[in-house]
Amino acid sequence: MQTIIAGKTKADWLEEIPLLKRIVGLEEVFWTNPSLVTFAQAIEKAPLSMDDVLDAEARWQRFAPFFMKAFPETVPSKGLIESPVKEIPDMKIKMKQLGESIEGNWLIKCDSHLPISGSIKARGGIYEVLKYAETLAMEQGLLTKEDNYAKLDEESFREFFSNYSIVVGSTGNLGLSIGIMGAALGFQVVVHMSLDAKEWKKNLLREKGVRVVEHASDYSLAVEEGRREAELDPRAYFIDDENSKDLFLGYAVAALRLKEQLQQQEVTVDANHPLYVYLPCGVGGGPGGVAFGLKLVFGDHVHCFFAEPTHSPCMLIGLLTGKHDQVSVQDFGIDNRTDADGLAVGRPSGFVGQLMEPFLSGSYTVSDETMYVLLSLLKEVEGLELEPSALAGVAGPLHLPKELATRNATHLSWATGGNMVPEEMKAIYEEKGKSIRMLGGEFRE
């Protein structure tokens, strides 16, 4: 008897959607979203708006004095958690030498080097912790919006927050951002880590005083266990990476900051100068929030693409079938095993998939081998060190069909993590990429 997947057999799905055959075959694919509509049409039905994003940005601003006091590395940015945008011209030249010509300008957004936790998850994870802390303190009359939030770095507040716990399920980077920030404020933090989580991430969390619960299963089950634990404790707050609007809005604020950065670098974004943005995607909250913010800021002039490992294309399968979180990669016989641990998610966020469906330009998949090759090349020619999952975004301009890009386009690869990776691991990643190149892997010299 054949297994039924969201009302159909696997054979039925493969016949109905031919691209699924290539996805199940673990091929690298590029998909253009037929559900994309104009920004004006899409925003009419969206459950969130620019007002929500501006409210989140105002909260970030209120916490800036706290960051400057508790995390001195944020003083140069006046307490903002932000990353630079860099042009990578040498990488573009290298790609051309390897037969991959890229039309237009190529930039990289270095969320890999965000302060505090060194990944894009600092945006959403830290933001939701801040909002929870602010809510608790205001409910108890300990804080008002007019206060200097530097006071939150006092022992009295840490004692107050120690009466509460924060629980989350994570493949690694979200757990890091929530664990580091939650512990700094005084919360008891519990992170349920999936099978794919790197050992160094678990150890770093334990060093911060975070309780790490390891699971011999994938991301979705780690989230389920975290949710179940939080439900048993009335003073526990569960951060739901699959359905959280707060996480989503924390990420969306990045678009407001990017607009200023592009203006400072004299990068034009308009009908004649399109912006193509490539976002590594796991469960969907980070890339979804950023992409939503970008559409609010740039409208139809920005084109956002999600990037997933060939072994974990959960969001793409959810979008292709229209079933979102009702289907998983395992349903289709895909193993969800990838070295891009931050993207090792078998089932996508239904909230993000449905919200982003009319805004998203498309998706593509990338093999681990491609990510490692790009990792070693980027280190070699630009001196940038990233973790494997971040290279999914760097692959974007190589996947984009030539007819979509123009000489006036700007390509922006979102580098999602890497700065916290131990030096010995960085060396292992780089050597693996070099070995693949020598053995005739992608973009062999």
Structure description:
The chain is 44% helix and 14% strand. It is of the alpha/beta class and 445 residues long. The chain has a 7-stranded mixed β-sheet. Strand 1 (4-5) and strand 2 form a beta hairpin. Helix 6 packs parallel to helix 8 (173-185), helix 6 (121-139) crosses helix 11 and helix 13 (285-298) runs parallel beside helix 15. The longest helix is centred in the N-terminal third of the chain and has 21 residues, at 50-70. The radius of gyration is 21 Å and the shape is globular. It starts with a strand and ends in a 7-residue tail after the last helix. The model has no long low-confidence stretch (mean pLDDT 95).
Distance between the termini: 48 Å
- Strand arrangement within the widest β-sheet reads 3-12-11-10-13-5-4
Give the helix/strand class. Answer: alpha/beta
Q: If you average the pLDDT, what whole number results?
A: 95
